[in-house]
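Table S4 entry, Hexosyltransferase.
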Amino acid sequence: MRRRGADFRRPVRRRVQDVAWWTLCSVVALLFIYILVTTTKGSNTNSTTSMPPFSLRNFRNERIMESLNITEEMLSPDSVARQLNDQISLAKAFVVIAKESNNLQLALSLTSQIQNLQILLSNAATRRAPLTIMESEKAIHDMASLLYQAQQLHYDTAGMIMRQKAKIESLEEQMNYVNEKSSKYGQVAAEEVPKSLYCLGVQLTSKWLNNLDLQNKLKDKLQSDMKLRDNNLYHFCVFSDNILATSVAINSTAQNSKNPDRIVFHIVTDEISYAVMKAWFALNDFRGVTVEVQKYEDFDWLNASYAPVLKQLQDSEIQSYYFRGSKDDGSTPIKFRNPKYLSMLNHLRFYIPEVFPDLKRVVFLDDDVVVQKDLSKLFSIDLNENVNGAVETCMETFHRYHKYLNYSHPLIRAHFDPDACGWAFGMNVFDLVQWRKMNVTGIYHYWQEKNIDRTLWKLGTLPPGLLTFYGLTEPLDPSWHVLGFGYTSVDPVLIENGAVLHFNGNSKPWLKIGMEKYKPLWEKYMDYSHPLLQQCNFH
Ligand SMILES: *[C@@H]1O[C@H](CO)[C@@H](O)[C@H](O)[C@H]1NC(C)=O
Ligand SMILES: *[C@@H]1O[C@H](CO)[C@@H](O)[C@H](O)[C@H]1NC(C)=O
Ligand SMILES: *[C@@H]1O[C@H](CO)[C@@H](O)[C@H](O)[C@H]1NC(C)=O
Ligand SMILES: *[C@@H]1O[C@H](CO)[C@@H](O)[C@H](O)[C@H]1NC(C)=O
Ligand SMILES: *[C@@H]1O[C@H](CO)[C@@H](O)[C@H](O)[C@H]1NC(C)=O
Ligand SMILES: *[C@@H]1O[C@H](CO)[C@@H](O)[C@H](O)[C@H]1NC(C)=O
């Protein structure tokens, strides 16, 4: 397995034996950013259960101080929970890659081992005491040996970066917003919630599997199968593996709707979160809103021969670019290598007509939004034959095309006005009839393939979105979609009038590092007194 050195600009590559390195690498990287020291610690190759060799305690005392209430456990470099979390994220990434490579056996073993680790985390969250090495050792070893197998199959580079996606994203945000509160805490603080999330996941999954009534209940609900296709209703889609976020997006839409019975939510998640989502939305009613849950692994059409993103995920040169930064003298800033957007749930937004072949108009919501108004008007807004209704972002700031795309490239220069106004993903009205008619997925594939060498754009789903929907985007009134709740201060008038508030940025409201002043906007729609949430020690 390879690792990236602490200084991302001058990657050091080294053979190491074990998975614990990922923990070390990311902690080193975080420390590096936080403390802005130039020294890096020496390497230390040790057993699977070994821990980073340096202490976070000074860091805590000097940097985080009084305002942060984080459990001792999470601050401790010896946190077993953190190690389990790291293994889980890495394993989740390998599941995707193993499946794409048709190694179903490995995918299955990984999935079941992920569940074992989640059960351990769940137990710890329920009893509110840290995990001990003793009780976790076997599971950690078993997982390590599976991960080792995956690594032998040369999935290692891809897996590494997928696992690190959250951390790299967090680094990126920290670099962008060093002065924001979020930058002080970073991932350390962010990790307390996942333990509770895993607990919730395990509880819900076992409820689901052991409770036929519940399964039947959902089936009954979906007898309204007709509703899923009825184009007179209001169809929303959310692509997410985060149960809390999805629940709030749906609940807030429902609470503020004048006709909740006309609302249909279509969730697409991954294999691992599938039962969790099913159980949660069968157990809870959101004012009669219809909720459908699918997993993208079930979409046969979504395969490497069709979707360039999946093909690129398998391409070793791409992997090494995104995941390791080789063939790169370090001139590309780390944020441009962010692998987040190689995640399939992220790219699913380009396949909405394929996901919902019967639908004509869909409102796409990111999972980190909260809805404050009735959204039914979005379904009658005239898009003037455009495909994408979106809020433009060039008014307040300078988010024009030249900011996102490489205008030295002749293809870009020839096709796109550099001063064209950018727009935001997160609350988009998509006209699927026009989409199919104009073959917009084909346009997306064209650009995604042209960017194989990453000279058109570096990062994200927004640049390919800007290319794909160029000339096909209808600007919406800005109050439909207000951005910035995850990293900046927002004008109170905009908050008051906003229909959809978007917590884009690192300070997600479900994390400790969420911005306190904006958390209530979101928490209002989260029932923390729910027995399951109580049991899992949320808040
Ligand atoms: C590995 O860690 C153990 C204690 O956790 C220590 O005794 C041992 O010397 C370490 N081995 C190496 C190679 O650093
Ligand atoms: C942390 O928060 C919990 C409850 O939110 C509280 O009981 C505890 O006293 C806090 N600890 C510190 C050190 O502030
Ligand atoms: C891959 O997807 C294409 C179209 O999306 C489909 O025709 C083909 O059968 C799929 N291949 C597999 C192996 O499922
Ligand atoms: C922009 O495109 C040009 C022309 O293809 C290419 O030489 C250059 O490397 C690209 N810039 C970046 C930052 O990729
Ligand atoms: C859509 O575009 C793709 C790529 O440009 C092309 O291969 C495909 O045949 C087109 N489909 C239709 C229905 O025109
Ligand atoms: C949904 O939101 C309402 C009101 O804001 C809240 O009372 C309720 O508990 C929430 N439901 C769930 C399941 O979180």
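The chain is about 50% helix and 10% strand.
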